[in-house]
Amino acid sequence: MSPPPGTRLLFRWRKWDGSPHWEHECVFLGSDEHGDWVGQVAGARSARPGREVRAPQPNVTLVPPSGEWAFTANAAPHPVRVYIDLAWDVRFDDAGEAAGVDMDLDVVDDARHGIWIDDRDEWDEHRVQYGYPLDIVARLEDVAVDLERRVTAREAPFDDRTIARWLAVLADLGA
To bridge 21 with a disulfide, which of 13, 81, 147, 152 should be the other Cys (CB 3.0-4.6 Å)? Predict the structure, then answer.
């Protein structure tokens, strides 16, 4: 269940074993045919154990109904246009907060280095360390390849028009 637009919330990631990972200060933006959108204004806090950063530019994140990934788009001039975290069970909980399990693999569109699937080494290490179920491993590997293809083709929601729409919503909310 998603909260009303403009609601401030935390987006909490954890690892497969339940340990804490990233936590992002966000605002709920709304929903469309692709899923639910949250955003971070410039200066919003993101933290994980041992590290804290502030968003250098606004960004928006899509949580699709499948719960298998979360897509973040950064406003210019950030060099990373698209960053997709492969996930498990990413969704809004009963309290209206977003949460999910970070599954290591990422799809990245970076102006300096192109489009690729990142963190395959971490994926290989953690699927053994955490004992990822083989059906989930196979599914998320297929999802990563499909997302890489869709980002390369700039299919919606990975197109500039969709990204611009949700960045405008974030700006209009004055979050």
Answer: 13
| Predicted pLDDT of residue 97 | 87
**Average per-residue pLDDT for the chain:** 95
Residue 123 CB-density burial (10 A; 0-12 exposed, 13-18 middle, 19+ buried): buried
Tell me 78's DSSP state.
-
The b/e string for 47-73 (b: 16+ C-beta within 10 A; e otherwise) is eeeeeeeebeebbbbbbbeeebbbbbb
CA separation for the pair 13, 23 (Å, rounded): 6
pLDDT recorded at residue 174: 67
Cβ pair 117, 105 in contact under 8 A: yes
Contacts (Cβ under 8 Å, ≥6 apart) of 135: none
Model confidence, pTM: 0.95
Regions in the chain scoring below 70 on pLDDT: 174-175
